[in-house]
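Subject: for your reference before the review

Hello V.,

The reviewers asked for a structural picture of the protein, and I figured it would be easier to keep everything in one thread rather than splitting it across files. Below is the amino acid sequence we used in the manuscript, unchanged from the supplementary table.
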Amino acid sequence: MNETMKTRRIPIIGAALLALFLGAMDALIISLAMPTITTELGGLHLYAWVYSAYFLARAVALPVFGKLCDLFDTKKLFLFSIGLFIFSSAAAGASPSMALLIAARVFQGIGAGGIFALVYIIPPDISLPGQRAKTLSLASSIWGISSVIGPTLGGFIVTYFSWRWIFYINLPLGILSFVGISLYLKEFREKSKEVHLDIFGVTFLSGFIISFLTIFITGGREFEWNSWQIISLTFATLIFGTGFFLAEKRAKDPILDLRFFKNKQFAHANLASFFSSFSIFALFAYAPLFLQGALGQTPMQVGWAMLSLSLGWSLGSLLVGRSIGRINAKTAALAGGLFMVAASMLTLGFNLTTTMVYSFIVFQVMGFGMGFITLSTLILAQESQLEKDLGVATSFHQFSRTFGGTIGVGICGGFATSGLLNRLEDVSHILNPQLLNQLRESMENLFKPEFSAMLTQSTRQILQEAVLKGVFSIFLIVFISSILCFVFCILLPGRVTPEKKHLKP
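And here is what came back from the structure prediction:
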């Protein structure tokens, strides 16, 4: 490393980590604002797409940008990613409709995917010898910080300002990161001419995820489950899935090398990570519907409740990181799986008398288990591969986590909206016709304070019970997903796989 780069490394690392913080926080901060957003913009049936669009774009962009940095100028790619994130954040904040908000979230996700991929390349590569692990640990800590700040900040902004500022806040901080990278980063990596972009793999993977999510988001609400639209989407999912499998088998440099799944330790670690993220992000996305719609809590109060989940996640990760030398990774994964199963089972008992303190504890235990799973499955995935493949193993694990969150939010979104509609129809005969018409025209009225003020105590309780029953399916799905996570933790080998022998001591 030359002397110039040595003097530049601190502002570069700072700017890169700031961009990482914004991208990580944006995945969680919106959960507190969604009931308010749907109240203003309408489109409750599009609730899931606000999350899924971001996660989907980020999941696909991650491996793409990882390969692009071997072909093109790293600085230009990073500036493009940050710039796209800033521009799309401004567009999201100014969105006049749910459709435009979702479109902006797609571009936010692409920008975040580029940031996430490059932030694990640039800071470590410019770090001083022996400091790379420390730099990577700083990047990991940013995730914990963002998960703690995000829910609290989101609740504060929605309560005292406008939900639009959860996006506008990215502008000054994003510009600061952009300027830091622009002024201090110089190209430092030799470019390869041998890297092949897996265009077919990216296309088929995107098509598979989009068609699969559309089935569950629209099924039972916009289209009947046996309609030609759903049947067509099912065939499309199968075609895209088959195309992706064949493309990855033939690709010279596949975006996701499926051959790694021949190793059971690697496969089970990634599947455990997938289902844990499925559970946790579905809970992040839809618990506010329960807390705000059924319990009548304010966005700020909801923010404190979701903060408990984030704190548990951070605490669990910290505890595993400090104790991994005394306990093996599988034991930590099993403990995390048990925590998640226990906590998700307790959510099945949520009712209108559930206190915020009780929900705080349940969410914290859920997050605690997620913290155990996140780090332990990463270690197990890395240990299952040769040293030369550690980078690929790490990226695959990150993709599994992101993919699980995308699918979880998408599937649960369909069940949430259809469940709410069905429950409202069940109680329609005992509601005031005027109120019923208002709800049928816009189900988002459930979250409007002025609408709630029009209700009698008995009517308000009926509607709160309808919301509770409508989101119960979400808690049930989260519970099933947590069980599947625990099952794959059990299936993890009890000892290190033979591949570990090939690693350098």
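For the response letter, the relevant points are probably these. The chain has a mean pLDDT of 77. The chain has three domains: 1-186, 198-252, 263-494.

Happy to draft the paragraph if you're swamped.

O.
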